[in-house]
Amino acid sequence: MSEVRMSSPIKNRISNVFIPVRNIENARDWYCKLLGVAPDGDILFGHLYALPMDGTSLVLDQMPMWGGNEPDGPPTYQTPAFMFQTEDIQASYEFMKNNEVELVTEIQNEQWFAFRDPDGNLLMVCK
């Protein structure tokens, strides 16, 4: 059976993933420490920060249009929307423990674990 390709102006590539945060400066510092990168670049428009990443970009966003101006901030991820990659799941888990990150699961199937960022977003690290 041959594959049918439809014409679309939208590329089959993800360029950015947005993470809702309540305080852009605190989130920038926390994620940079988590990923072992130095803060690079400015906070844009008072609410956006693009983390220095390899591959798909990760953008922290206070999301003023999507609830960021509300007292509780924007809604958080309650299901992981993406995963951070690691070559050493045990070392990654220990790193999180040593940095007092809220761990939601232990290492599962020797492949992954879930954790929460300071804003309550549920995230994942996978081997």
Automatic annotation (TrEMBL):
Residues 14-124 form the Glyoxalase/fosfomycin resistance/dioxygenase domain. It comes from the Bacteria. SUPFAM superfamilies: Glyoxalase/Bleomycin resistance protein/Dihydroxybiphenyl dioxygenase. It comes from Paenibacillus phytorum. This is VOC family protein. InterPro entries: Glyas_Bleomycin-R_OHBP_Dase, Glyas_Fos-R_dOase_dom. It holds the Pfam family Glyoxalase. Transmembrane segments: none annotated.
